[in-house]
Amino acid sequence: MAVKDTGAGIAPLWSLRRRLLAAIVAASTVLWLASLGIVTVIAWRETNEVFDDALEESGYMILAATTDWDERGLLASSRPGGGPERKVDMQYQIVADGRVLQRTRGAPARPFVTGFDGRHGFADPEVDQRRWRVFVVRDDERHFEVQVGQKYKKRFDILEELAEHLWLPVLGFLGLLALVCWILTGRVLKPLRQTASAIAGKSPDDLEQVPTAGQPRELLPIVQALNGVLARLDAALQAERRFTADAAHELRTPLAGLHMHVQLLQRQHPQLVTAFQKLRQDIARVTALVDSLLTLARLDPLARAQLASQPVALAPLLEQLLAAHAGEAARRGITLRVRCELDAVHADARMLDIMLRNLVDNALRYCPAGSRVEIAAGSYAGRARIAVRDDGPGVDAASRQRLAERFFRVLGQGQGGSGLGLSIVKRIADLHGIALAFGAGLDGRGLGVVLDLPPDLPPSATP
């Protein structure tokens, strides 16, 4: 049996479909056994009635056909010796004054019934430790009786033979019943699987209500309760995004004013240039943090269908990126180069530019003077790949797993940052279906960020 670790312990997994099938088959088997018992009782009763009628008819026929008998008690054979055994196998005796005057080969030598006090009727004697069903009819004028008997075992043998012929078809029908029930329960539970698939597809970007149309009555309360949870979750996320966007937007203006005031004070008080320079750096870092928060707030509610995906010429984009960062790279003594072997990729041009700018900014910020940063674009395993690699200090393997987390920063780098740049890259990559991976950089040193783009899709296609 499959098990699942629930945290508090290991709980067995169970199948509603299998339980339903087991309940149906078990109930059907019990009812079948009960019906079989009833049928057996009825069959036994009807069989006895038929055989009793046959005994009675045989008795009257023998009585009517008997004109004389062998006074010496000679045996009269009813069938040749060694022949096949008869299923009905009725035996008879002609009895006078308590003696058997004539009988069939299978009948006992002494009368089935002695001291019978009626003209005709049935009796159940035990002869030679065998139970018989006997019909007795008396001829009062000629003073003799005809006794026709049949062993009860012959009647039981018929029922046993019937059971031997029926058990295999009955088991086959039970197996067929289990198969039919399995198929039917699968069809009945199909809405449950469809609803589970719809729920499994939900994400923070898709909190639409699960459709209630066509849901079975038993499942409807669960779906409605889930829709209530989704509605509250969506409202909470929307409120959080609005707050982040509003706060970031409102902070940009006072930060810009504060930066201008610091510049003015720096000119008025040149003796405090070092302190004001540090203050300007802090303001710039806060401004960058606000810009990143605003970017994330705009990216979070987006879905892939809302992207303006189209073929983007990659060489011009990378050249613009190189030109935009050339001054910063030169100031920090870092060699920045581009190697492009792709003509175009399918993406949202603005989002792709934001993603690559964040990667290059991140590389330039944490690489020391004399380092190299390379932006490379090419094909790998049939897919477009863009990589930004450096040969700086790099990041240990444990920290690489958390680089895309929001506000996560590697300790000991000695550089300022918001911890949101790679989070923005991860969000844009997820929107495009791009595989993002962190590994070693140039010559096995530093950090390498690899973007594997999905195969090109038509502009109108949506995931």
What does this protein structure show overall?
The chain is an alpha+beta fold. The protein folds into 3 domains: 16-76 and 87-188, no CATH class; 220-297, Signal transduction histidine kinase, dimerisation/phosphotransfer (DHp) domain (Helix Hairpins, Orthogonal Bundle); 308-452, 2-Layer Sandwich (Heat Shock Protein 90), CATH 3.30.565.10. The protein contains 9 helices and 15 strands. The chain has helices spanning 16-65, 152-188, 190-200, 220-268, 273-299, 314-331, 349-366, 397-400, 421-432; strands spanning 3-5, 10-12, 91-96, 99-103, 120-123, 126-127, 130-139, 144-151, 309-313, 335-340, 344-348, 372-380, 383-390, 435-440, 447-452. The strands form 4 sheets. Strands 3, 4, 5, 6, 7 and 8 form a 6-stranded antiparallel sheet that branches. β14 (435-440) and β15 (447-452) form a beta hairpin. It is rod-shaped, with a radius of gyration of 49 Å.
SSE blueprint:
Elements: E1 3-5, E2 10-12, H1 16-65, E3 91-96, E4 99-103, E5 120-123, E6 126-127, E7 130-139, E8 144-151, H2 152-188, H3 190-200, H4 220-268, H5 273-299, E9 309-313, H6 314-331, E10 335-340, E11 344-348, H7 349-366, E12 372-380, E13 383-390, H8 397-400, H9 421-432, E14 435-440, E15 447-452
Parallel strand pairs: 10-12
Antiparallel strand pairs: 1-2, 3-4, 3-8, 5-7, 6-7, 7-8, 9-11, 12-13, 13-15, 14-15
